[in-house]
Specification:
By secondary structure, the chain is mostly helical. It has a two-stranded antiparallel sheet with strand order 1-2. It has helices spanning about 5-15, 20-30, 30-40, 45-50, 80-90; strands spanning about 60-65, 75. It starts with a helix and ends in a 7-residue tail after the last helix.
Length: about 100
């Protein structure tokens, strides 16, 4: 994954319009496909994803215990049960 600073630099260079996508890619050491994806707006904005507040997610910690829902030996909260819950509601990340 390329850094946020490189992505912003690519966007600036594209906005200037002096260099081709190929020249930008060579100059920054990334692929033409990456530059093209940024130019077309098809590359996710990873910085915005990181800065978004998460829902009610709590990172697993502590010693492994048996999950009351699935019975797996995991650090609580159980990520497997959380993923199943998100798949059931169909909103992956937008439901509690």
């Amino acid at each position: 994954m390329i850094t946020v600073t490189v992505v912003s630099e690519i966007r600036e260079m594209l906005a200037e319009g002096r260099l081709s996508q190929r020249q930008i890619a060579r100059g920054l050491g990334v692929s033409r496909g990456t530059v093209n994806a940024i130019a077309r707006g098809r590359r996710p904005d990873y910085a915005a994803r990181r800065s978004r507040p998460s829902d009610d997610f709590t990172a697993p910690s502590g010693p492994p215990r048996r999950c009351p829902e699935c019975g797996g030996l995991v650090q609580m909260p159980c990520l497997a049960c959380r993923v199943r819950q998100l798949q059931r509601c169909g909103h992956l990340g937008r439901c509690a």
